[in-house]
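Regression test case RT-17, inverse folding.

Input:
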């Protein structure tokens, strides 16, 4: 029997765990500013508050609490609560979907650059082809390259738009072409939509895969646009209920069920989603203004371009020391934390190695930029 290859370390998460909680200024986070518990509870109606305060801290249903699944299903155009399966964050959903869908005889296609789980988990199971977004053409996706990569045994195409780390959103016609391609070949479209609902304008918002394609699998989470990563509530929406049940059976070996308090809190946030999302979008929009101003003064060092979605951008660093040395010294000497492009290294093909990830979902961006500006001024070669 041949053994599946081991999964290499998750470079981004390993780098994050080294610096995320010690760096003074985190200018690289991919989530939006977290809500505080009292602020979230202030949005609860009397019934929800009473439910939260009297909650039994028991196991909950593996699929997720029925009322939560009902609230989640309302965030799609066409799903029923039975089409939703909750997970401990989006990460568990990626893991389980890949483990259930793919076998050693299959082939998968994954976009690069990516959140590493998107490629490392499939790579531990089967052959995977990477299709690179074109950094010289505003991170565009060449649909002909995707088509050319399809093999008779291609089972799944995995996408993530708005993309981590580039913030790219596909034009609607490219997304539609991808769906058409998947339909033609009977391929599952695994669509990581965790940054959806953070777009520069609503017209840029893509449909959710599950709403437009019978083999669409939509992944989402409370962590990003809703600013509630600590709840660890994610979900998959999929209309193939037999497949969803296979995912559920796998979950019995992992988290089993979600945390009961998190389920109630997620439901409160989702019922008030317009308020919660307006807060996130306000913070992001204000931060983009700050970044535009800041980088205008430092265009000799950074190529900043506002991405069309999400709250991260993957910007070029042009200093002579290179981005690895720069980000390392910057966090050690000034406490300003950026992820360097090495954490996005892919096993599927080259990823630009002169970039860093800027995150702009947090309220303390102004202070962080001020510390960065002072550091750059102190170092006269900048
Ligand atoms: C594209 C993408 N998918 C999934 C995840 C995992 O989300 P969570 O931390 O909520 O499990 C992340 C986290 O950064 C992400 O960027």
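Golden output:
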């Amino acid at each position: 029997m041949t053994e599946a290859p081991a999964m290499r370390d998750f470079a981004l998460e390993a780098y994050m765990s080294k610096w995320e909680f010690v760096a003074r200024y985190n200018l690289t986070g991919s989530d939006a500013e977290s809500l505080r518990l009292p602020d979230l509870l202030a949005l609860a109606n009397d019934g929800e508050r009473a439910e939260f305060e009297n909650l039994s801290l028991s196991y909950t249903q593996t699929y997720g609490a029925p009322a939560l699944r009902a609230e989640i299903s309302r965030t799609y155009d066409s799903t029923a609560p039975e089409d939703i399966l909750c997970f401990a964050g989006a990460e568990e959903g990626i893991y389980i979907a890949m483990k259930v869908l793919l076998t050693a005889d299959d082939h998968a296609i994954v976009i690069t650059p990516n959140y590493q789980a998107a490629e490392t988990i499939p790579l531990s199971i089967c052959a995977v082809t990477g299709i690179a977004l074109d950094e010289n053409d505003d991170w565009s996706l060449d649909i002909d390259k995707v088509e050319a990569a399809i093999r008779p045994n291609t089972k799944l195409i995995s996408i993530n738009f708005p993309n981590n780390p580039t913030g790219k959103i596909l034009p609607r016609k490219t997304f539609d072409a991808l769906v058409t391609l998947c339909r033609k070949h009977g391929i599952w479209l695994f669509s990581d939509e965790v940054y959806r609902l953070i777009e520069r304008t609503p017209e840029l918002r893509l449909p959710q895969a599950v709403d437009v394609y019978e083999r669409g699998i939509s992944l989402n989470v409370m962590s990003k646009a809703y600013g509630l990563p600590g709840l660890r509530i994610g979900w998959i929406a999929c209309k193939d209920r037999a497949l969803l049940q296979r995912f559920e059976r796998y979950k019995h070996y992992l988290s089993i069920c979600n945390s009961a308090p998190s389920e109630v809190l997620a439901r409160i946030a989702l019922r008030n989603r317009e308020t919660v999302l307006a807060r996130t979008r306000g913070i992001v929009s204000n931060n983009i203004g700050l970044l535009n101003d800041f980088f205008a003064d430092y265009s000799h060092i950074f190529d900043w371009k506002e991405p069309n979605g999400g709250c991260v951008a993957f910007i070029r660093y042009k200093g002579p020391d290179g981005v690895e040395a720069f980000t390392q010294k910057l966090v050690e000497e000034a406490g300003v934390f950026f992820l360097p492009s090495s954490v996005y290294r892919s096993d599927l093909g080259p990823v630009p190695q002169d970039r860093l990830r800027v995150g702009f979902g947090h309220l303390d961006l102004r202070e962080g930029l001020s510390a960065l500006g002072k550091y750059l001024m102190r170092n006269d070669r900048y």
